[in-house]
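Here is one such tokenized protein:
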Amino acid sequence: MSIVIRDVREHELDSILALNNAAGPTILPLDAARIRRFHDTAEYFRVAERDGTLAGFLVGLGSDAEHDSSNFHWFRAHCERFFYIDRIVVASRRRGGGVGRAFYADAQSYAELRYPLLTCEVFLEHDADPVRLFHGSFGFREIGQHVMPESGIRASMMAKDMCSHAWVRDTYGEELPDEPWLLRPRVAVAESSAA
């Protein structure tokens, strides 16, 4: 019954694409090329397993990433340095079972050592109140709204201060200690498979 959060594996990309495109109107559809690009370039691309099956995924990008999302560019115009959750998808049969909270805890643990702000958006159409409440209960606040020009969808632009970031930056600068748990997720997988 435990939830395991781990780095995505290349052979899972088709399953992740299907999961994304079955998520409904609160998640924009993707194609295989976009999933491949996330796999090849995203700073954070992790999946959740529950009972040995894929339960969801989360894609995150740092503020310096090359990313064409208008929501990402909105944050870039309004925030100096941030970690952006591009998308989180939880399989419908796993919603309400803690997978989303496990993802956010893992993403926050990653982000707070590297960025002062954790950001995401919530679409305001399609009964967004449960999703906004989830984010609010996790410490996010709305810092603005944005209408996506490519779809006309209005999004609540949300942010959460990473309260540990200032201490980490002041203590360690840009060089975190050489500890396995501090490695960027994708780097850790590459190094462990090379050994």
Residues 187-195 have pLDDT under 50 and may be disordered. The helical segments are 13-21, 32-41, 70-78, 99-111, 129-137, 165-172, 185-194. The CA atoms of residues 84 and 119 lie 5 Å apart.
